[in-house]
Amino acid sequence: MRDPAGPAVTDAHLHLWDLQRSPYAWLAGAPEALRRTGEWSMVHDGLAALGVTRVILVQADDTPEDTAHLQRTARAIEAESTDITARSPAITADVVGWLPLEDPAAVADALADPAVTDHLVGVRHLVHDEPDPGFLEHRAVGRSLELLADAGLPLDVPDAFPRHMEQAARLAEAHPELTLVLDHLGKPPLGDSAQMGVWRAALERIAAAPRTVAKLSGLATSGNGAFAPVVAAALDLFGPARLMVGSDWPIAPSSFTLDGFSPLLAHVRERLASDDEALREMLQGTAERVYTRAGATGEAGATGEAGATGEAGATG
Asked: pLDDT tens-digit profile of 54-82?
């Protein structure tokens, strides 16, 4: 049954990986508990209990095989939901996948191929694992980003602080038609007061671009995990119409649990308890606008004005 505490939820950042489908080389350096396949059946009931009715499956490897796996999984999730019971509410599923951004011709071909764009609502590259920190500002990558903007697909930027925070702000300025999604609020260094000031200043520059969006996700594994101050900062800088929530499952203080997502949802619901519209925006509305399927009509990324106020080690 849907959580009675508020409106339906889109989990805007869910990982489902299959170790038989793609290398996931980064897992070799991840906590041992994460080094196993994460399947939909392992998290479905927990998400349904939290009121989740849509999931965004986010790539965890820069390979076409990982993205294809997520697309098959998204189709299976929706097929499963055609048999609706009170215990298992209908859930829709979409994919933030990977494309070879350094090859704009290949990106153009991919975006013209319905098989490649099936359920595709965004693109991500594991830039924090790139040897070249300037990858996203290469000229060829810039041409690919223009193609994404033309297709109405946003770019997710993962684990940005400190390596990519300033770069994300420059990207937003250089590509004003592209919706840029900052995963995990850029991974704020929670508990480090000096570095938090650096993070906040960088976040302000990112938020100044009107087509930037941020995810409240992955915060339980960021610094000391005390996320309340950064939720307040995000609301102040982005407003609820440019914020989304995500579980970052299975990456959490306890791997393959929702012990990071459940407290975050409770905090957001309590903070916005007096503003139903703001709460709906954060829990579902922003994701509805930003993550639209490739080729769908609508204004993907039309997320409101910059700075609107909202209050009356793993890949991630």
From this structure: 999 999 999 999 999 999 999 999 998 76
